[in-house]
Amino acid sequence: MSITAILAFSGLSSLPAHADGGNMSPASSDSPALSQVRAHYLVGCGGCHGITGISASDVVPDLKEQAGYFLCSPKGREYMIHLPNVAFSPLSSADLADLMNYVAFGLGGNSVPVGARPYTTAEVARLRQAPFRNYSLQSYRLDVVRDVIHACPQAATVIHAYDLALDKREIDNK
Ligand code: HEC
User: Fold this and answer.
1) Cα 30 to the center of its chain, rounded Å
2) Averaged pLDDT for residues 106-128
3) Of 5, 74, 80, 81, whose CA–CA distance to 39 is shortest?
4) pLDDT of amino acid 56
5) How far apart are CA 68 and CA 80, in angstroms?
6) Nearest CA to 152 among 66, 72, 71?
7) At residue 89, does pLDDT exceed 90?
8) Fewer Cβ neighbours under 10 Å: the N or C end of the chain?
9) Residue owning the nearest CA to atom 36 of ligand 1
10) Per-residue pLDDT for 78 more than 90?
11) What is the mean pLDDT of residues 83-90?
């Protein structure tokens, strides 16, 4: 799907929840069932992370079958909401909680640890007030990843792929 098609979906976010799309011409044949949360994802995140949660894995970490791992530890859980692209999202905290539950439980698929709780509106409202600003997002991520892997060792291979690609780029650029 092209970026133009993704942007065309943005109009959906202002529709009432019960709209069936009958009075509009959908941008593509698979759009009538497109939920609001998916529209929010496509507009706000999909340009970087890809429609299905996979894009340029070396530059943007995959979310598909991975994002759920961050729910393995409190630090990982907070990390996902502290990310500037998430914390500064124009969405309300209720919509952002829905979006992050879609990202973690929907796109994250089997990476979600047993017994993980969904994000609540109150939790998201609190966490998004402390976005990262002051130090390297990369070193913060490494710290979080170490913590998450400690709780869920099976996460190691997949969530480290992004760090390895970063390291390689730094070496190549020297
Ligand atoms: C401009 C591109 C861009 C946009 C837009 C963007 N992200 Fe990201 N996202 C990234 C990058 C780059 C990282 C890696 C951050 C780091 O180095 O810690 C990331 C990390 C993440 C992670 C953690 C995954 C990991 O393995 O570290 C999640 C979850 C996430 N983004 C969700 C979202 C959501 C939800 C949105 C939309 C509200 C969004 N992102 C919008 C580029 C983007």
Assistant:
1) 22
2) 97
3) 5
4) 87
5) 10
6) 72
7) yes
8) C
9) 45
10) yes
11) 95
Exposed, middle or buried, 26 (CB in 10 Å: 0-12/13-18/19+)? middle
Here the tokens at position 96 are 């952002």
Q: Contact at 8 Å (CB) between 131 and 110? A: no
Average pLDDT over the chain, rounded to an integer: 82
Residue of minimum CA distance from atom 39 in ligand 1: 45
Q: Side chain identity at 25, as an amino acid letter?
A: S
Taking only the tens place, the pLDDT of each residue in 133-172 is 766 788 888 889 999 999 999 888 888 788 778 777 777 7
pLDDT of residue 134: 66
Which residues' Cβ are closer than 6 Å to ligand 1? 44-45, 47-49, 60-61, 63, 67, 80, 83, 85-86, 89, 99, 103, 137-138, 141, 159, 162
- Give 90: exposed, middle or buried? Use CB within 10 Å, 0-12, 13-18, 19+: exposed
Asked if 109 contacts 64 with a C-beta cutoff of 8 angstroms, the reply is: yes
Determine the pLDDT at residue 15.
36
Which candidate, 78, 57, 53, 56, places its Cα nearest to that of 148? 78
Query: What's the rounded Cα separation, in Å, for the pair 161 and 146?
Result: 13
**Separation between Cα atoms, residue 25 and residue 34, nearest integer Å:** 13
